[in-house]
Design brief:
Elements: H1 2-25, H2 47-59, E1 70-76, E2 82-88, E3 91-99, E4 105-111, E5 114-122, E6 128-134, E7 137-145, E8 151-157, E9 160-168, E10 174-180, E11 183-191, E12 197-203, E13 206-214, E14 220-226, E15 229-237, E16 243-248, E17 256-258
Antiparallel strand pairs: 1-2, 2-3, 3-4, 4-5, 5-6, 6-7, 7-8, 8-9, 9-10, 10-11, 11-12, 12-13, 13-14, 14-15, 15-16, 16-17
């Protein structure tokens, strides 16, 4: 009996060391989403300011459009911004191009002074969004390209990734799944550039819940995750057919199971 207990303790120790080596030196990235762009408050045109600027400029001209009339205007506004396109009641309405003094530019559909419909918004940094807008926000289907080369194609809600979408990182990684208020949420697949990939649950931008991590060498872990690491019940399968099943934790003393 003592010999059996010693053998069990030895195999558990080996399993712990192997598991610690695997997840201690390589594991899912827990911070795979970063701030990509600043608040988009610069995009929104304040209705009263535009009306005042355009009204003042129209007073110096011979032509005065009637209320509700659509007309084309090409103007430098008194605040330094520039607009060329269609207007109604002293507000951008229809197709138009708007340059802000900070270098941002929008080309697309307008409705009552706000970006609404299809359009392209670009930043001086080189970032660009092409897709649907609503009430001045990126909202609906669209593609965002970051200055560092990261791209996101999918659903947006008020300037945040929200719904299903695919983010391709400049380093070769890729996430395909659900998003909520700008972060990975619910179910998704994250693939590293070396071919390893995770399929399972996410919470607040990190791997959390039930999921499986596959290695290109044939190894596999399936079980529960917390903050990007195995936590609780789980099984690690080695490519040679051996496996460790039991409880997983960041604390080696809490690891227990069978090898």
């Amino acid at each position: 009996m003592k010999a059996l207990e010693a053998t069990v303790r030895k195999t558990q120790l080996v399993a712990r060391k192997r598991a610690h080596t695997i997840f201690g030196t390589y594991g899912p990235t827990t911070q795979i989403d970063e701030a990509e762009f600043n608040n988009n408050k610069e995009k929104e045109i304040v209705e009263e300011d535009v009306q005042e600027n355009v009204q003042q400029e129209n007073d110096d001209e011979d032509y005065h459009p009637m209320n509700g009339e659509t007309y084309h205007l090409e103007k430098f506004l008194s605040n330094g911004d520039y607009y060329t396109g269609y207007w109604v009641d002293n507000l951008p309405n229809g197709q138009g191009k708007y340059w802000w003094t900070d270098g941002c530019m929008y080309v697309g559909d307008w409705s009552k002074g706000k970006m609404k419909g299809q359009g392209i918004f670009s930043w001086p940094s080189g970032a660009m969004y092409e897709g649907n807008f609503k009430n001045g926000y990126m909202d609906g289907e669209g593609t965002y390209t970051a200055p560092n080369g990261d791209t996101f194609r999918g659903c947006w809600l008020m300037d945040l990734k929200h719904g299903n979408g695919v983010k391709e990182y400049a380093n070769g990684d890729c996430y395909d799944g659900e998003w909520c208020r700008g972060l990975q949420e619910s179910n998704g697949k994250y693939t590293w550039k070396n071919g390893n990939y995770y399929v399972g649950e996410w919470a607040n931008g990190t791997i959390c819940g039930d999921g499986k991590l596959y290695w290109t060498n044939g190894n596999l872990f399936e079980g529960n995750w917390e903050d990007g690491l195995p936590k609780g019940k789980g099984t690690f399968h080695w490519a040679d057919g051996s496996y460790y099943i039991g409880n997983w934790s960041r604390d080696p003393d809490e690891l227990n199971g069978l090898f």
